[in-house]
Each structure stands twice: as structure tokens, then as C-alpha cells.
Design a protein that fits this description.
The chain has 92 residues and is mostly helical. It has one domain. The protein contains 4 helices and no strands. It is flat and about 70 Å long. The termini are far apart.
Length: 92
Amino acid sequence: MTIIAVSTAVWVFILIPLLVVWAIAIVDIVRRPLSTVQTAAWILVVIVLPVIGTLIYFLVRKPTEEEVLRDQKARAELEDSSTVVHQRLPGE
């Protein structure tokens, strides 16, 4: 394998996905209802420590109320659809 092929593989399979996750973290920090100081602190942590800061942010962040409600609704719909699948038809 040549140096160019290894370099391309590193970019495609490691660095580009890390950059995407890093950008998602920055956008998520800006869009969350945090105070200005908290937002600035998290952005600083994620920029100074891109990989570890992003990992820590996603591990520590709490879901918003909207995310909790959306999750509960999805679970309720899943339970409703699973009970419909398991009902027997007349004559079985």
C-alpha cells in the first residue's frame, strides 16, 4: 500500500468522520438553551480539545425537554404498533 493510499484512507475513515462529529457538537452547543457563559465554555473546551472535548460534551449533556417528549412519544408509538402486530385475527 502506498503512502498516498494510506493517507487517503486515514482522511476518509478517521479524520472526516471526526470533523463531522466535531461540527455537530459545535452546532448542538450553540442551539441548546445554555447561558452565554456555559455556551462559550463548552465551545472553548471543544475547540481546544477537539476529540476529548467533543466526547466529554456528548457524554455529559442532558437531553432537552423536547428530546425527552419525542423519545416518549416514539416509545409509545412503538408499543402500540407491536401490540397490533401480535393480535390474532378471527378464526385463527
